[in-house]
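Two records follow; treat each independently.
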Amino acid sequence: MTYLEFNWWSGCARAYESGFSIFLRFCELNHLSIRRAQEVLAFNPHRPFSSPDTEIDRLAALLGESSSRLRTAFYPDLSLSSCGSYSLNPGGRDERVIRFCPECARLGYHSMFHEVAWLVMCPFHGVPLQVAQPPRYYGTILEHYIRTLQYVMKIHCAGWPLVQRGPADDGLGSVPASILDWASRSTKSSAEFSDKDILLLNSRGLSDSSFNLHKLGQIYVIEPVPEEIKMYVKSVDVNWRIEYRRFDRGGGYFYPDVEGRRAISVLFDFYMKTQPLSHNPPPYVEYLNSLIEALRTKQIACRCDCFDVVETTGEVLWRKVIGVHGQSYRRRCPYEMTLDELEARWGRWTEVWAKRLADQEFGRLIVLSQSARDFGFVRLASDDATCSDEYFQHLHSPFDNYTWTLEPSELDLLNAAAKWQIEAEFDSMTVWLDSLNSDREPLEYAHPAGFVRIQSDGDELVLMRWVRDVDAS
């Protein structure tokens, strides 16, 4: 018989115990530092496995545990981080906390369920999860988590680190089993739904954790939460619904593959930069102008007392002015900045961009027009030039150099997509501007990301958008 060279035994790891808890108890039972335990186990519980099956089998053999028992500590689907463009993103430094159940902690037990940011109640005891902040600052992320969990266990568990059996050792109850099943189905359904997308009209910032609550609410629509576990999952501040418009595929472009996504990205980029300045603009431009005029009317009655603070990153924060002389600090009215933002993104960008930036954009449009030509979306007058002077004259007039070769249905799709995205941005801007005129601190403005999408569905192109419905509270 061979004996392990450290204090651990088969069955010491409890079913569905978190990797952090297993690692911490290994440290405690063997009087090892965090760094030394990392060296012995070759395991970092705050990082996902690169080869889960292989690494779990290796760790199980090292600890003398069964692979099936140890595998219950790691369920990647629970994080909802493989849902395509709906994937939840890990939080930043502010999220480096330990969530725990006080009833489980009395047993010296911390579950991988407790680590899930979208769960608010313990699936074993049905009590709200609590959040523990670290008692002080620690130098590494892993130490941050481990010391916080250690702090929790020393407060709640009288026999720590000698612990009792876990609540799932005799079998997984119906609630946690239903949570695992829903997370697995949600990951699959959301990824498949995301795979239909060939264009997200704005994906800027979508990978930031601040969008997690939006995406979680959308996942709830894609894969509804079973009634049995609704009380255990995080509620969202809005209800979401989906609206669709269907269009003929036209020329046969835009399939959900790399080339199709690249093609429609080039097309929409070229479309939104040229159409507001064309001689015959599409209907969405008139709609945009009406929204801009409405903002200008509201600006007249603006009584906001905020000023802008530009961070070193270029981000603009708005803060309330203190005292009657605060207006002297403000460089621009927030309405002016909002109007410029709408014009720069969707309207007559040549009028609001600095000359150097506008010149650079003209150069980019020349290249973009040639890419649009290569995909067969436009014909370029410069290609028919009979001499170099005529060629460059056409080339340097990007708003007059092209003729669309698209089907009417494809142009209708582009117009409708632009209108929907402008509407989403205008609604978000209105909410933000209203917050500037309220008594509370201004909201942080973020462009609506992933609200409007173009999808491929058989012989049709589908314009889809997420609509914030009514207050869910």
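The next record belongs to a different protein.
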Amino acid sequence: MNTELLARRKVKHERALRRAKNEKERSKAQRELQELVPHIIRLTFEEKLAYNKEVRRLLAKKLGIPKKGARK
């Protein structure tokens, strides 16, 4: 599976997990995250680096977390 697609799905489901209002929503988001794990494990080293970089970029964009080394 494409690293960018994996990263987007991971961030999407992590946000859903944070926003979950009840146990049903929470368990659905956790199940979706668990379904991504085998795909993440199968990534090669270079793909894993690209995946982690994309996850950090998306989290910075979605959650307003400053990028590494950014000024305050």
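Discussion point: The two ends are 36 Å apart (CA to CA). How would you locate this feature using only the token line?
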